[in-house]
Fold this protein.
Amino acid sequence: DASVVTGIAYDKSEAKIAVIGIPDKPGVAAKILTALAKDDISVDMIVQNVSQAGLADLTFSVKKQELSRAHAITREIADELQAKNVVADERICKVSIVGIGMRSHAGVAARMFTALAYNNINIQMISTSDIKISVAIEEKYTELAVRILHETFIQDSPSKSIYAN
Amino acid sequence: DASVVTGIAYDKSEAKIAVIGIPDKPGVAAKILTALAKDDISVDMIVQNVSQAGLADLTFSVKKQELSRAHAITREIADELQAKNVVADERICKVSIVGIGMRSHAGVAARMFTALAYNNINIQMISTSDIKISVAIEEKYTELAVRILHETFIQDSPSKSIYAN
Ligand SMILES: C[C@@H](O)[C@H](N)C(=O)O
Ligand SMILES: C[C@@H](O)[C@H](N)C(=O)O
């Protein structure tokens, strides 16, 4: 098994904004991100899944303290795009398992998602890279999620670590 | 500006499978990934956005040569979950800008998305980490996308690189 989980990370400083039902054509994602960039908003996660019937949802996370400003900007752009809805939610936490060689292992993601499910923690968003599998969950489950992921992946390896972003 | 783009990466070896309209409750993502893991399927991107009306879409990418096996497994699980649909697509390419400090910069994403939009390249999926912004686009645009992202971010820095995964 070539993949190695080296740590658990969590970030409680973020809030999410979902732009629902935007046209799936070139320039739409650019319009949203450009408006945020113009106002110097910091963006962490950006998640967009495949569209249905020509409409897509784009969700991104911002610092909690920037939420109201980001929300206002987003609503303006969403109106121009005739999006269906804009939903802001500051009760999230991003929890990640960090490692190497994880990109090719469905097993690592399976173990992570199973551990969360076993504890009745719902996964709101998923985003991956080759060194990180991140999920957004409800903020109240942060400590529980970190503890169970630590038990699942790190417990027997004192050299590994939990770290907060 | 603290973020630095150090390279453009692309990966034409992947195909995507979208599981549409799965119940947004604990255990669902785990069920899908466990079935894939059991059959030793390699999974690269996993993207799930926030749900609408209790239903979510989960999309993941697999090696093109594993697509038919992964598709068969996924359809089976999707039936058990009473998902709305399973959509497989092997005509995608994953293109990424790689760098440091990008997680807080809407500007980097804005420039990337604008460059693609300017060339009429539609963004099908977006997934980010602090060192990588990845998009899935139609495979036929691979060379064009890599070239324009290189012109946008790398052109004046011969020490940077384009690399294929
Ligand atoms: C939905 C959005 O990503 C659109 N497809 C775009 O390219 O901008
Ligand atoms: C949709 C899926 O991610 C579900 N929310 C789960 O936790 O498994």
User: Anything to note?
Assistant: Chain A has a mean pLDDT of 92. Strands of chain A lie at 4-11, 14-23, 43-48, 55-63, 85-89, 92-100, 125-129, 132-138, 161-164.
